[in-house]
User: What shape does this take?
Amino acid sequence: MHSKKIPLVCVIGPTASGKTKLSVELAKLFRGEVVSADSMQIYQYMTIGTAKPTAEEICGIPHHCIDLITPDSTFSVAEYVEHARAAITEITTRGKLPILAGGTGLYVSSLVDNIKFTPTSSSEALRSELKALGEEHGNEYLWKMLHEIDPELAQTLHPNNQGRVIRGIEIYRLTSTTMTEHQRLSRLQESPYELCMLGLNYSNRQTLYDRIDLRVDLMLQHGLLDEVRALAERGYSKTSVQAIGYKEFFDYLDGKMSLQEAAECVKLESRRYAKRQLTWFRRDKRIHWLNVDEYDNFDQLLAKASKLIREMMEGDSP
Assistant: This one.
């Protein structure tokens, strides 16, 4: 190590690219523990649809930042960073290697770039006004409004993510500075981490899409509909509707579409989400991309990832 920085391995990439398996196998090799960077796995009772790792997949490796809150709670990026930082510090103190694994780009970059979240002004009146606009004209209308003032932020958000879209508009209206600019300024302090960032992808995009489609089918086989019904019974159907794989099946249960239509809709939205994830991560030049389909088998992929981690730990990385 060429500094006193905390070593941190990041396994990132689009949905269904194989992050869970690689992070667990790396944790076995390097005495590591996994810290999730997934904005949906923080919710309790949402297990199958968020692809939380199962006991079989985890293989006894401790996982952090999963099941933190109930689906009706609000949870900011700043709160996530606080939880993840605490987990990383604790893991390191015990002499283990922290491995950040997940596909939520905003979570990953906010953590690794040491973004300082200052309590930015907020206005209930403005927020209510924007919510009313959304109800009247639809989520797309608010998203376009955000896109005009902060296109960079808008590109990373789904129009249905109304809370974050409204927050982006609110920050600009109150401070005359975009959230993107606030974050850029807050990045000026150096990161405390010595990073080895591994990005999983497929050189053949269709292979990734096929994996996404298959995963949706498997989720249904493993009881996703029962999970959605249980959320509705607990009264959580309104709060978890932002999550892909839930809102579509609530529509099915409400009789708005057939099961096949709902499943196709989830597959389409998941593929779109994967494209947005790749767009976000591609801007980060520190990421070593590993195209899974260019390796003959998983062991070769694991060997390449391990080599990159050893270089980081020995201070040989460029």
About this structure: The chain has a mean pLDDT of 91. The two ends are 12 Å apart (CA to CA).
